[in-house]
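Quick log. Single chain, no ligands specified.
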Amino acid sequence: MVLVSATMYFPEQARAIMRQIPAADKQPTEAWERMRRSHKLGDSQIVALWDWTREMKDSYDDMNFTPESLSGIKAPTLIVYGDRDPLYPVEMAITMYRAIPRSALWVVPNGGHGPVFFDAAAHFAHTALAFLRTAA
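-> predicted structure:
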């Protein structure tokens, strides 16, 4: 299993960012252009993503994984985090790494949330495939 910017729960810093997400009709033109480049299912997909992200700020029935519950994971697990993720602190990745047996942790230097895209995509593919080959 490969987890990228995964979280055990939504920490307050993530909820604070979620509260700042404007509704689709308030998004600037450049935000629409950026989203259209990476979301190919059309504007309805983009609107749904923004709505979903905003709504999560008030949801406390989200995942709530504890180290004890994570310790039951049997699959070899690569945990990938950016060291500059504004949503989830790298300490959360360390907690998951310590809790999940047979896990490995890759902290991407200068990586934000989702540090495996764009210029990092090839490096991520190589690293993830190498992990999966040795984990089998």
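The first helix runs from residue 12 to 19.
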